[in-house]
Amino acid sequence: MKQEAKSATGAPATLWDRTRQLASREILETALRLFTEQGYEETTVAQIAREAGVSQRTLFRYFGAKEDLLGGGQDRFGQVLVDTIGGQPADAGVWEVVRAGVAAVLALHDSREQALKRFRLLYDTPSLRAGWLEKRLRFQEELLPLVEARMDAAAGNEGVRARAVIATAFACLDVASMTWVADDGKGDILDLYDECLAAVRG
Prior knowledge:
This protein is an all-alpha fold and 202 residues long. It folds into 2 domains: 15-69, Orthogonal Bundle (Arc Repressor Mutant, subunit A), CATH 1.10.10; 74-201, Orthogonal Bundle (Tetracycline Repressor, domain 2). It is 69% helix and 0% strand. The chain has helices spanning 15-38, 45-52, 56-62, 74-86, 94-106, 112-124, 126-148, 158-182, 189-201. The longest helix has 25 residues, at 158-182. Residues 1-9 have low confidence and may be disordered.
């Protein structure tokens, strides 16, 4: 069921907030359509702004860079991971909390169709893929203290083991999403993630 829009503070959204949200969504939908139709590199910010009915200056007030137009900002992905993993119960296991983070970021997509388009663009566009790999390393560093704190200190080498867990989770997410794209969006990415993780841990 659709929930009432909220502002950044959690209060009911004002008319200005709702207008801003609608404009942001329209820009994103326009960008995703153009990227899909003619390619990421071939689509200019000026063209997106023109077709969305806004100025380039307005577009950049909503989105700081062209790559953010693919899905609202990959930094948001990292923040959701950190917030979700950091907010899990203290007695939850390390693999359990990392899975909760993966589920949370997958839920950021508005629809299966939208997710498929975004993942396909990510994997088919070298510049986007390279940028994602760079940011992924930063996300892994940000997650390290959260995951390390949940490792069994008695076993020693918490930092090494935490890095291994995080790297494995990201690798399984990559395999799951690439498999999902190759199968044209059949099944569920999180189920594929679980399958990949079971194979690694088995």
